[in-house]
Amino acid sequence: MAQHQTIRRNTPRSGAEIPDKLYFRIGEVSRLCDIPAYVLRFWESEFPQLKPHKGGTGQRLYRRRDVETVLHIKSLLYEEGYTIPGARQVIKTEQRQKAPQLALEIEMEGAAGSTRQLRKLQKEMRDLLAHLTRPPARPAVQSIRSSRSSTRSSTQELFTPKPEL
User: Fold this and answer.
1) I need a labelling partner for 136 at 20 to 30 A (CA). Which of 45, 102, 103, 150 fits?
2) d(C-alpha 44, C-alpha 29), whole Å
3) Contact 19, 4 (CB under 8 A)
């Protein structure tokens, strides 16, 4: 098996090193984080942010992001003294604060392209509005009522007995 490089975790809270690979099995995460596997399984049910992928055999496959989340949860519970509901609330609040910043960065990066797209969309919407507000064209066919009434009169002429002369 190939050796994997280790990468230091960015947060100073933990000195744990996470190997540079795509997926980790629950036993590896257990050893890396120094937490029993049954605790990891329990945390999966308590923290919606912790959702490891399950492979074809049903074995949990944690990504790097999941391992970092486990280390963060461990820090909140064991080092900072939060309860499970308190830690869940802290993580939820952190995620809410990160989302608008990420959206703003994306918005700033693609502002020029987005402006062009918005103008194109506005033009299409104006064209559609103009098309919808235009009065309908006159129908090439007569309306049903007028054709029925003319048909009745011609039918009545055929079947109405004519006075004999």
Assistant:
1) 150
2) 13
3) yes
Domains detected in the chain: 6-109 (1.10.1660.10)
70 CB-contact burial (10 Å; exposed 0-12 / middle 13-18 / buried 19+): buried
Pinpoint the alpha helices (H) of 17-110.
26-33, 37-46, 64-74, 84-109
Q: Which long-range contacts (CB under 8 A, 24 or more apart) does 21-24 make?
A: 21/64, 22/63, 22/64, 23/53, 23/61, 23/62, 23/63, 24/61, 24/62, 24/63, 24/64, 24/66, 24/67
- Length reported for the chain: 165
Q: Which of 85, 59, 61, 60 is nearest to 73 (CA)?
A: 85
The tokens describing 22, both together, are 């795509």
Angle (CA) 65-71-74 rounded to 5° is 140
Prediction pTM value: 0.51
Give the pLDDT confidence of 73-92 residue by residue, as tens digits: 999 999 999 999 999 999 98
Residue of 105, 114, 98 lying closest to 49 (CA atoms): 98
